[in-house]
Design a protein that fits this description.
Structural class: alpha+beta
Strand order of the largest sheet: 1-5-4
Order of helices and strands: HEHEEHEEHEHHEE
Distance between the termini: 41 Å
Number of helices: 6
Number of strands: 8
Helix content: 25-40%
Strand content: 5-15%
Length: 190
């Protein structure tokens, strides 16, 4: 079983882009301009899919057999090499830096999917704190991601490491302080 599973419980609610039904979409095109347009479409699709399915960490290998990279109606699949190439493009300026490889240099098997960047999550967290009157209150990280007060918040059930990245942004801005041991951390917002 993978450490970063793909949950595909909301497939019926997800609207696939038109290009998903076009067989050449699953084969990288040799023409530079066409490939750039294809990468842009793939990036948009991957981010939308991850947002809909609440995927923060994407294991490329595990995703190959999911609807993200495999269209069962067409019997077309993006190859592992091509999936890595697209995600790698997403990590660069051309791809708006909407992904980041996790792990050792050059490994390229698991990536953060930034359908919201840590800075954007930090802003969302800060707004939630303001709107709910949580300033100068100590909250556990569990309360932030799994508490009843956050059920309707976009960051509910957020990956703990992504939460840490986002809180780090707020700490650097002087808007929060994280303290406690690794498994019992709390945060105070200012």
């Amino acid at each position: 079983m993978s450490k970063y599973p793909i949950k595909d419980t909301q497939t019926l609610a997800f609207k696939y882009p038109r290009s998903y039904s076009f067989p050449p979409f699953f084969t990288l095109q040799p023409n530079t301009a066409t490939r750039h347009a294809q990468f842009t479409k793939w990036s948009s699709f991957i981010l939308s899919y991850c947002r809909n399915h609440r995927i923060w960490r994407l294991s490329i290998i595990d995703a190959l057999d999911t609807p993200l990279f495999y269209n069962s109606e067409l019997r077309k699949r993006l190859s592992l090499h091509d999936a890595r190439e697209i995600v790698d493009w997403m990590t660069k300026g051309e791809g708006a830096e909407r992904a980041e490889w996790i792990g050792r240099e050059g490994e390229k098997s698991v990536a953060w999917m930034y359908w919201r960047r840590p800075e954007e999550w930090a802003e969302l967290l800060s707004d939630w704190v303001e709107e709910t009157g949580q300033k100068n209150t100590v909250l556990t990280l569990y309360e932030l991601t799994d508490g009843d007060k956050t059920l309707s918040a976009d960051f509910h059930r957020m990956d703990p490491a992504m939460l840490q990245k986002s809180l780090s942004v707020l700490v650097k801005r002087g808007k929060a302080q994280v303290f406690g041991s690794e498994d019992q951390q709390g945060v105070k917002f200012f």
